[in-house]
Amino acid sequence: MEPTTTLDIRYSDPGAVPTPWSEARELLERAETYWLTTVRADGRPHVTPLLAVWRDAALHFCTGPEEQKARNLEHERRCALTTGTNALHEGLDLVVEGRAERVTDPGRLKDLAAAWEAKYGPGWRFGVGDGVFTHEAGGEALVFALVPGKVLGFAKGSYAQTRWSF
């Protein structure tokens, strides 16, 4: 399903055009580092870098069950994943907002494990346990899918703010 695309002229240069969803989706697929924003139980924000893969119209990420982001997602599944560039005058930054849902299906986990290794190399080879990723170094990781509800794109150079609604 293609999202509805709108240009926010309040934050865009005169004559700017919206960024095509295909360009944003490609960046979500190829980006290496993402920033996850969750909310702690007391309402304070928590932001941390992580790796993710785009698969089946969602960004997927994993975390140890004892990590702060996992504890945050226990009580509040709404979150945001951000990626892009640190450059001021070029590139595209993206903010993906939605609700993170656990992935526990063994078939999906195997597919995602293969996607992680294909994207990040053999150091990111996961096995599949009972509803989790496993790693030869030990430990388990919970896997989440963030299906976008809204994505904001911030094009730089010719500045344009695009919103994709799903």
How would you describe what is shown here?
With 166 residues, this protein is of the alpha+beta class. It has a single domain (4-165), classed as Pnp Oxidase, Chain A (Roll), CATH 2.30.110. It contains 3 helices and 11 strands. The protein has helices at residues 21-30, 68-75, 106-120; strands spanning 4-8, 34-39, 45-50, 53-55, 58-63, 78-83, 91-103, 127-128, 133-134, 140-156, 160-165. Strands 1, 2, 3, 4, 5, 6, 7, 8, 9, 10 and 11 form an 11-stranded antiparallel β-sheet that branches. β10 and β11 (160-165) form a beta hairpin. The radius of gyration is 17 Å and the shape is globular. The N and C termini lie close together (8 Å). 28% of the residues are buried. The model has no long low-confidence stretch (mean pLDDT 97).
